[in-house]
Design a protein that fits this description.
alpha/beta, 17 helices, seven-stranded antiparallel sheet, eight-stranded antiparallel sheet, 25 strands, binds 5-amino-5-deoxy-1-O-phosphono-D-mannitol, about 625 residues
Length: about 625
Amino acid sequence: MCGIVGYIGHQKACPILIDGLLKLEYRGYDSAGVSTIENNYISNMKDMGRVKNLYNLDGINDLEGSIGIAHTRWATHGKPSKENSHPHMDNSNTFSVVHNGIIENYQELRSFLTSNGYTFKSATDTEVIPNLVHYYFNKDVNNDNKKFLRAVHSACMDLKGSYAIEIICSEFPDCMIVARKDSPLVIGVGEKEKFISSDIPAILSFTKNFYLLNDGDIVQLHTDSIYFYDKNLTPISKDLKNIEWDASAAEKDGYEDYMLKEIYEQPRSVRETIGSTIKAGSLVNFSEINISKEYLSNINNIYIVACGTAMYAGLSAKSLIENLCKLPVCIDIASEFRYRNPIIDEKTLCIYVTQSGETADTIAALKLAKSKGAKTLAISNVIGSSITREADYTIYTHAGPEIAVASTKAFTAQVTLLSVLAIYFAEILGSASNERINTLKTEILSLPSKIEQILELSEEVKSFAHKVYTEHDIFFLGRGTDYAVSMEGSLKLKEISYIHSEAYAAGELKHGPIALIENGITVIGIITSPNLVEKTVSNIQEVITRGAKTFIITSEDIENHNYDKVIKIPKTDSMLSPILSVIPLQLFAYYISKEKGLDVDKPRNLAKSVTVE
Ligand code: M6R
């Protein structure tokens, strides 16, 4: 839940580190710090608050070292404070460490170190790491060039939990050690320099060549050399990967906020996610996976497991998969699934949807399904992310880097990919008619241009947001896929506007929620399923009668029964409609947040990647 950056090379490290941290702030932003080495001395500067506050620290511009580590924090152990900020140093100021993850046995390690004379300044789990490294370093009688590496390795062997760590040592000023287990870490390679980061976009402006680390990897870095080891300290080799992303794709491209940029990128991200999977006259093609008819015909059910928006993407696609494949589809929240002993076996296919590919609960839920013999398929937006290394099959959304904490383009890409996957399965199983499949393919191919048409309506959404941004409660109603998208719209609004909001299945209204409706309350109705129009329209009338203001998003030709605002979106198959109807809801949440003067991209208490439970 934190971001880490490292640099070793021939340039001044500090500006490169801060630049990387600024791009990683979506991972956490309650405190930040840097350590660099110069003349065998580690300077450690850190404070509470945003990364940009680092520029105000006395002497930070004088740091000349060309090796350094840096961190932006999202507190887990210990409140946000200067003492709890990273980097953390050992008692002798020989080692400095930044860490992302959680050390589960830190209390035990702390007691062990305390009994060996070590003291602690912070309330963090991380501070045990530099002291543990120091402990092993001092015990090692061999003074060769692997001494630092061995000490880090021994310390890692004692750590339980998750970590991505970078460590520097004043006695080895030309070397940095990094290691990972269950937390992301990549190494970018330049000309006689290395850039280390929690993710690729943060250092993409420096290099396009990356090494992706696996769990248990430990790496010794020098300006012009790099040595990889596995968890047993056995040397291993790795392939350098060339990442095609353009650095400017990770910038704001002139938009006021990342979220708005990402909303407007959706015609492209949906188009790129469809990619070459659908071609006229051919079966759906997923070259990355090869699922056999024999396997699929033996499946009894499908689970889609995820968190937050990714889970709503699963819910939005459920009907289409069931309808085409004639298989029951259960949607589950990863943090629930992993602890309730779900009934799954080798006849269950478990699909895990995650933009980042690093969400701790989703990864744990996948490991659980594997242990029960189920096959697992990951849908991720990040190549080489942790989940992709665990899953039996992986397919990628091609939404490009998503920086805003509130997920937008990842959602539409996920629903698109799940829809194409439903067709792929149906073609293998022969469970849907060619006519139905061809209609759906044509509809999917037309989605990007329909999204473009909806984006042109943004001023209308903005004007309604202006009318209601001071409200305290906003409700969303829908049926079928419109209910799934209502939940996503409500989540978006909560996240970035801090307005209390709920989504209800419209048919549930009379079973309780209608008691909340009173004069002036805003209700947003989503109406895109032709067979449910009359039903939802009646429910909306019931709230209007009780004084509600209504904002309707519809693809249908409904009469205006005193609605305050109607946004007419293009028609599509009702099972694909979440990919379109969510767009006005994303814009609505965005404009409400802007009207309230909030930080749209970095809402309070939230981080982009939830890599801890
Ligand atoms: O990276 P993931 O897709 O696994 O993330 C899952 C959720 O944490 C994420 O969708 C979260 O709900 C977003 N902030 C929603 O906008």
